[in-house]
Give the backbone structure.
Amino acid sequence: MDSGVAAGTAGVSPTVAEPDARPAMDDAANRRAGAVLTVNVGAIAANWRGLRDAGRVANRQVDCAAVLKADAYGTGARIVGPRLAAEGCRQFFVAHIEEGIALRSAMPEHPICVLNGLLPGTEDDFVAHGLTPALNHLGQLSAWRAAAQRHNRPLDAVIHVDTGMHRLGFSPEEAQVLANERGRLRGLRLALIMSHLVASEEQGNPINGEQLQRFRAFLRTMPGAPTSLANSSGIFLGPDYHFDLLRPGAALYGINPLPGQPNPMLPVVTLHARILQTRRIDALQTVGYGGAWRSARPSRVATIALGYADGYFRILINRTHVHLAGHRVPVIGRISMDLVTLDVTDVPEAEAQTGALVEVLGPHTSPDDLAEHARTNAYEVMTALGHRYARVYVDRPESTE
Ligand SMILES: *Cc1c(COP(=O)(O)O)cnc(C)c1O
């Protein structure tokens, strides 16, 4: 699991205890890497336990799934999935069937539900890989039932009902048809009835309560099956929203489920990029494409090895910073495909040398922070994380236990 160097500081998470800790890497990866993404799967596991325990209030046994779509929000589904299974997670969600197939080879046993549903002609692929489609309308339900008949065995079915998102799921009219004609489920095992919240991160938004009422009303017509409503932020709306199965994604990966409040989750990723070259420029010289930044004074510029092809968005021009040896370093000029330029004039020369690693994401800059600078959310920052990074997986328990 831990492909990096053993931490040597058992029980201490460098992301918490040593703000300037550099990623642990073996020598070859260390030499070659332009940028290093470190994923702490121990922190993901701890976040999962915390969310699961949130569902265990008031003597209820609410189960907690894990949403692994978009390669586990950029962190690596085939590594995160088995790690969470070992932690006790028994149910997994992805978006695409291809994601399910890739995950299945890493996790032979566990239920994997494909949220995007059942595309025509893919029924046998679902069966062959032991995947469960979220059935989003009556047509998908009958196609899945036909597949169960063809394969001559009961297949698991997940029914997704739309309670206000108006994106995927059974419409109210179709849900009514299903409630009146339960025979449409014959030959299937109803494994889950689920819906998805529109604005769960806005605790005061009345849409939450309205969706809750609509979901409950539908469930009264379909008693008996396990039920699920809450994504990460939905868990924090309280036990009314928990039903039988929690469905967190973002919070597992350290994204704050409570925008505007302190983040209750442990940080999961750090990203360090290497300085490729430094140079001196005079006052009134420009840096990068379009000459979009001009030095006010004689300056030193460092160029690091990441760019928009790695998920460092172009909109970040002149409005964010990185950290180097305890210094906050402005990102200057346009973001290139493969390169970003920094104003390191105020960093001691010995620290800003070719080969030095700067912190792009880490204790000083969370994905939520970078998202704010980029006018987006941390979901987009995480899922845009590039595939050119050297990836290091560490499994460090949280430091405060
Ligand atoms: C993405 C997704 C989730 C997880 O949402 P988070 O906000 O990342 O916790 C849960 N359910 C459905 C249907 C989703 O699409």
Notes: Residues 1-20 have pLDDT under 50 and may be disordered. The chain has two domains: 3-40+266-395, 41-253. The longest strand covers residues 269-281. Residues 67, 69, 115, 196, 231-232, 247-251 surround pyridoxal-5'-phosphate (CB under 6 Å).
